[in-house]
Amino acid sequence: MGTGFPLAGLQLMGFTLCGLAEIDRYCSHILRQRFPEVRNYGNLRELSERETLEITDDLDLISAAPPSQPFLKLRGISHPRDCLFDILKIVGRLQPKFFVLNTVPELLKCPYAVRAKTAYAYYLFREIDRLGYDAEWLVISSGELGSPFCRERLLLVGYSREFFDPKFPPRNWMEQYRNELETIGSSERRGVSQSNPAGGLLQFARRVDRSVGVSSGDRTYRYSKKVVKNILDPRVAAVALRRVLYLNSLVER
User: Fold this and answer.
1) Element (H, E) at 136
2) Distance (Å, rounded) from C-alpha 122 to C-alpha 73?
3) Between β-strands 152-160 and 61-64, what pairing exists: parallel, antiparallel or unpaired?
4) CA-wise closest residue to 135 among 126, 145, 143
5) What is the largest distance, in Å, between two alpha-carbon atoms of the chain?
6) All domains of the chain in start order, with CATH
7) Strand partners, 138
8) Rounded to an integer, what distance in angstroms lies between the CA atom of residue 88 and that of residue 84?
9) Cα(70)–Cα(86) distance, rounded to whole angstroms?
10) Under a CB-based contact definition with an 8 Å cutoff, are residues 90 and 52 in contact?
C-alpha cells in the first residue's frame, strides 16, 4: 500500500507479484484485501536465508520503499527504522536482474550515522557495486505527474552487470522521463482525461479532513491520515517500473 509498486506493476502489465513485506497493521489489512493470494512475509529484517531463497527461483525484480525518517532526521544507520542495507542483503541473496528503491532526496545528503563525516550514499553505492549492480537515480515531484499532492521522491533503479554489456550503455533515464512528461502534457492539451492509476485511491487524500463530530483521536481517521501521508503515488512508482521495462527490453535483445 505504501510503496505503490504492486499496484503500478499490475497496471503496467508484464509484472507478477510474488510476495510482500509489510508490518503496519492497517496497511497489511489493505494488502490482504487487494492481493489475497500473495504472501506477506512481514518484517524483512527477520527473514531467514532459507525463507528468502524459498520466495521464488526466478525473481526478476525487488522493489521497496524503506522508511524515510533516517534520512529526514539525518541520522542514517543510527536511526532504529533504517533498513535499507537489510533490503540490499536480500538483493544479494536472491540476485534479481533489477531492484527499485523509493525514498526521499535527503538520502543524498544524509551522513552515514550521527556525527559521521562520510555520507550514507557513499556506503550505499559501494554496497550496490559490491553486489554486482550498477545504479541510476532520479529525483521527481509527484505534482509533475498530476498527483493531487506534491512530494519529491528519489527513485533508484539497480541492474545486474551480469546482463548488460558496458560497451552499450542504456539510454539516459532523464531523457526517458522527459518524454513521459511530454506525453502527459500532450494528452492534457488535447483534453484527454488522465485515468486514475490508483482506481480512486488518490481521491481518498482529499477526504482525510475530519467530518463534523469526528474527533482527531478517532482511530480510523488516524490510520487513514497515516496511510495517505506515507503513500507513494502509483504514477511515481510507474516511472521507476517503466525504466525497468526498458532495461529488460535491452536484456531480451
Assistant:
1) strand 133-141
2) 18
3) unpaired
4) 126
5) 64
6) 5-252 (3.40.50.150)
7) 155
8) 6
9) 14
10) yes
What letters, b where the CB count within 10 A reaches 16 and e where it falls short, cover 11-45?
A: bbeebebebbbbeeebbeebbeebbeeeeebeebe
Contacts 24+ apart (CB under 8 A), 28-37: 30/1, 30/227, 31/1, 31/6, 34/1, 34/6, 34/7, 35/6
Cβ within 8 Å of residue 247, ≥6 positions away: 98, 157, 159, 164, 170
For 152, phi and psi rounded to 5 degrees?
-80, 135
Q: Are 107 and 154 in contact (CB under 8 A)?
A: yes
Amino acid, single-letter form, for residue 139: V
**∠ CA 30-35-39 to the nearest 5 degrees?**
100
- Residues 163-222: tens digit of each pLDDT: 887 778 888 999 999 988 887 765 554 444 443 433 443 344 444 444 545 565 667 666
Residue whose C-alpha is closest to residue 4's, from 193, 181, 205, 172: 205
Q: Which residues fall within 8 angstroms of residue 167, CB to CB, at 6 or more apart?
A: none
Query: Which one has a higher pLDDT value, 198 or 96?
Result: 96
- DSSP helix/strand/coil, 125: helix
C-alpha grid cell, residue 157:
533503479
Is 0.90 surpassed by the pTM of this model? no
d(CA 5, CA 108): 22
Quote the cell numbers at residue 86: 537489510
